[in-house]
Amino acid sequence: MNYQYLTTGLLWALSLVFPGESTRGNIVEKSLQRATFECNQYLNARPQCQARCEALVLRSWNDSSGLQYISFSRHFRPDRNDVTYLNRTLQCLDDRMAKVPCQAVCAKASIYKQCYLEQWGNLVRTPQLVPMPKLILTNTILQCAQMLQVNPQEMDYFARNKFDVSDRSRCLLRCITVRQGLFSAAGEPNLERLYVQCGGYKVDEASFKHNARACVDRIRIQGYDSCISAIGDFLHEVC
């Protein structure tokens, strides 16, 4: 069985447990300034689509659904005493988007960027986590399978059972999440990265982290080691 045919099933299974410029493992972090630099190289004097290009480089834009605000908002920091930045940003978007045709994706992206710059907060100059796309996730799965000597038949079986059939399957899941930067080698979750990668699931960040910490505490009481079901349990419950 060819590895390439298995990746679709693996991606589907992983999506059930968890749907800059620097790299550690397969982590990518970029700043908005870096995205601007890259787009200046790509667009060749087409400034009207600059903001859309930047959001695409940061994997924070989809032409159908628009801005992915959880990852994009990481590039702006509101003043600690500012309690109205979110409402102002939303009002800015409402006022300006009403005049833009539905298919004018470049204009829409420009409005998003301007409203965030004007209303959300100061630009963050340090690289922020870029959500991992399916292509890199596929590569991560294949890398871990090779490192752990998991054969194609095993991969197919693990995927169909959501990686919860044996210590070997759970160790593969552990490898994938560690290389994604979602967990440390000791099994500690990185809650900020998980929130960005999981997409928030309609839960605000404070609630997400509170629920995640409670889950970690319960898992620790049960005494799981790093290669059994602790990571799988955590991802199922939190993501």
UniProtKB/TrEMBL annotation:
**One Pfam match:** PBP_GOBP
Q: Which family does it belong to?
A: Belongs to the PBP/GOBP family.
SUPFAM superfamilies, per database record = Insect pheromone/odorant-binding proteins
Taxonomy, top ranks, is: Eukaryota, Metazoa, Ecdysozoa, Arthropoda, Hexapoda
Signal is among the record's keywords: yes
Q: What is its main location?
A: secreted
What GO terms in the biological process aspect are recorded for it?
A: sensory perception of smell
PANTHER family listed in its UniProt record = GENERAL ODORANT-BINDING PROTEIN 99A-RELATED, ODORANT BINDING PROTEIN-RELATED
Alphabetically, the GO molecular function entries are: odorant binding
- Tell me where in or outside the cell this protein is found: Secreted
Report keywords, A-Z. Disulfide bond, Secreted, Signal
Report the protein name in the record: Uncharacterized protein
Answer whether the UniProt record assigns the keyword Nucleotide-binding to this protein. no
GO cellular component annotations, sorted alphabetically?
extracellular space
